[in-house]
Each structure stands twice: as structure tokens, then as C-alpha cells.
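I am going through a labmate's work and have reached the protein record below. What it holds is a sequence and that sequence's fold in C-alpha cell form. Please read both lines and tell me whether the C-alpha cells look consistent with the sequence. Do not assume that whoever made the record got everything right. Thanks in advance; the entry in question is below.
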Amino acid sequence: MRPLAGKQIVLGVTGSIAAYKSADLVRRLGDAGAEVRVVMTKSACEFITPLTLQTLSGHPVALDLLDADQESAMGHITLARWADWILVAPASADVIARLAQGRADDLLSALSLASESPLAIAPAMNNKMWSNQATIANLELLRSRGVQVLGPASGDQACGEQGEGRLLEPVDIVAELNQLLVPKKLQGRRVLITAGPTFEPIDPVRFIGNRSSGKMGFAVAQAAVEAGAEVTLIAGPVHLATPTSVNRIDVETAQVMYESVMMEIGGSDIFISCAAVADYRPIELMENKIKKIDHDSLSIELEPTRDIVADVAQQEDKPFVVGFAAETQDVSLYAQEKLQRKGLDMIAANQVGNGLGFSVDQNALEVFWENGSRALALTSKGQLARDLMTLIIEQYNAKNTTKTA
């Protein structure tokens, strides 16, 4: 299946050092069967020449809004009508702000405003710009209008710093765009997902927590949206942007996450427990900060927290229940035991520790269900989430077919 075959893509290239990757992106879009027309901002031309992208796309590159030759035929309107999709990659912080404001003072922003075609952006910027509240607000506004945000990735940046803000690799951009075009197999279904850690307070300053970043759960939420589901995401304390079209509920403790799940679970078709929920919490919350000078040693008595996924699985009218297991050893053994003991429909397990699992951008999973299993190879968490969602849909449909047979 080639979802991009025959699609007409307007590729907007903006002023970012990552613009050099647009040459490879044009080639890969073409290899996927798409026809590409390139629009460049003036700043983009400082990083890569229009001739390069013209040669690769096979079409002249559009540069100016007020080009007499083009505008005699209303060139920006023609491009806006021609496009099946508009893809801005790389999308600089400046262009993201322009799109959010509805500006129309250059060719790319004008044709984006004039088009009724879907718009996707692949951000690329310094990590501090990415985390700035102005950028976050602009992205939230664009997402609320249905704009798809692809990435960004995390890692080394041209400025010498590290962090989120890197442009996704062209192969990943094409993969994500492909996913946006596949049939919506969960259309009309409600999916409830938990993600991230929980923090269990010891005193007003300290807490018991874990290393979960929430990246996998957020990727699963995005994959569920791409499959057409109505998604609610209950998130522990993480610093991640809300996936497009997802209803997000922020919580901190295991108890509040439990209560939120029980409030939202009614009417859900699928429940995916991706959060790394604390198994124990302090029995007593100290009113004031514990001072080191007051204690030669310190003992904290703990009590178990409520088991969210097990309680959901025990409900009379339960949804399809997917659990996660993060283990440091005997991953398959512990996962299958948990699947049976808690009465789950499916469990996804992965190795953690020593640089694996938590706070990284890649992962691998072993997935188990009754009388079946599948190993999902190491890949980006975005792609892994899509592969997992494919399995969930298959088993959800199989179970419901059996019920109605």
C-alpha cells in the first residue's frame, strides 16, 4: 500500500539550517509516489538553492508572492487549489508564528491561508525556542485548527546544544505523512490512555517518582488519533506537547490518576495503561519539609496504591484492556504472568534500565495476548506506537467479532 501515490504535495521550505534535508525529503516524497511542488521563503534560500529543489522536484520553485509572471494567473491561489496536502518542513519558529496569526505577507503563508487542503508542519528550531511559551501557544492554536505537527526529534543541534527541536529525518516525515492518509480503523471509537509517571509526595518538597518521560504514551495517543479514535489522555507530570486532537487531563499522584480513569472509563472502547504508576506511596505526608539535621536515619512507611489497570479489567462492562510492563529482567515471563493475573486482553513489555526504555526516543516491545505474541523491533517511539496500535486494532476487532458470532 502506498498512501502517498498520486498525491499532490506543496512542500514549504523555511529559514532553518535543517533546510538542507529538504532535498532528501523531495526525493523521498517522489519515491513514495507523490508529485511535489516546492515553495521557499527568502530565508530558506540562504541555506539551500532553489535550483537544487527544482532539479529534484522537476518543477520551478515558487519564491515570491508578488511575482508578476505568476500572479497574473493568481499563482498562490493556483497552488492552494492544486495541493492535496501542504507540508512545511522545516517549519521555523517564525513561520509557525505566522501561520498561527493567519499572516499572508509572503507566498507560503498566503497559500496556506488560501487553501482548504490539510496542513502538516515539521518543526525545526533551537531547543529553547521550541520550549518557549510563545511557540507552545502557537502550536496549540494550530493543533486546535487541525494542523498536524510532525515531530520534532531530540538530539544534537546545529547550535551545539542538545534537546528537542531537531527536524525529523525525511524518511520519518514521509512515514508520518503516510500514516495520516491510511484508513481510520478506529473511527467512532473512544480510547482512554494513561501516560507518564506519578509523583507520590513525602513532604512539601520531596516525592517518590520514576524515570518515565511519557513519550511512549503520548506517541500511542497520537497513533490512536491517526487511526480515527476519539482520544482522552490522562498524563502524569511530564513536559510534552499535547498530541493533535487529544483531550488531555493532567494529574500528579496515583490516586488522582485512578480517580480520573474511573471518571472517564465509561463508554470507552479501549483502555491503554501506558503510565508508570507508583506501586506504593507514603502512608503519612509530612506537613513541613523533613530536615536532615533532625534525623541520623530516616524510614518512610509505604502503602500500596490502587491498581488502575487491574480494576478496569475487572469491570463488568470492561473495554479492551491493554497493559504495559517495564522490566529489568525476565521480560517475557513477567509480562505473561501479569497478563493472566490482572485479566488483561493484551500487554506490551519492554526492557528498561541501562539506557533502555525511559527517556529515550527509540524502543522495542514484546506484545502478548491470549494464545498469541509479536515482537516489535527497535524503532522510533512514534513508529513503534503505530505498530502497536495496528496489533491492538487487530485483536480488538477479533475479540468483538467473537462476541457477536
